[in-house]
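If your schedule permits, I should be very grateful for your opinion on a structural question. What I wish to show you is a protein chain and, alongside it, a tokenised description of its three-dimensional fold. Would you kindly read the sequence against the tokens and tell me how you understand this chain to fold? Here, with my thanks, is the record as I have it:

===
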Amino acid sequence: MTDTSIFLINDCALISIATGQKAMTLAELRNNLTLVSLDSIYHHFWGGLLVPRFEEREFNNDFAGWVRHSLRDPVLAERLAAIDPSASGNLEELRQNLLDLIEERLDENENVEWTRGYRQFEFIRSQLVVFDTNRRLEKPEDLAVQIPLLSTSSIFYHFIDARRRLDQGGDDFCHWLTGLGDEHQGLCAQLAAIDPYFSSLSQIRTELTVLFQTYFTGGLS
């Protein structure tokens, strides 16, 4: 039996798997979006966070990047880039948001429907592999000490991927604190206010570190 009073720190890696579904035009992208698994939608919005890079991403999701650089449609690319998956209730709703914007663009300009891209869009899905780090948090105050020591992939697992694992949404830290009682609900509210989508994982780790260290040293309540 798992002791719910102890927080188990996990790490993770995303394995990319080709789906075999591809698009060369906006119409093909739309048609395949209705068919691909939700894991593929998840990968193309969130998977890029775990890819090492030296520069900030130009677009936070792969659809916007492909539309801008392959279809050369900056209007639709900007609209797709503005989608915040954190604001969607679930991945099915996120899929519908994508389809609505694409349909809107197709209605505006009939020429874009069959314009061929310079390269095809390949739909990828992800499989998450989870590792036990053998590190544990025994009390909430440990968050202030351990968060800055976590890998960025561990931050991804506990603060981002938790949102699709937990029935009630939210992150693993808040889920754990809530299970300990009502004492830290103010902290949970501050965690819920952090939107992780437009930040890098290292920026999220820094933001969490500041929040936990400030909270547990009495700066916030």
Notes: The CA atoms of residues 64 and 77 lie 4 Å apart. The chain has a mean pLDDT of 91.
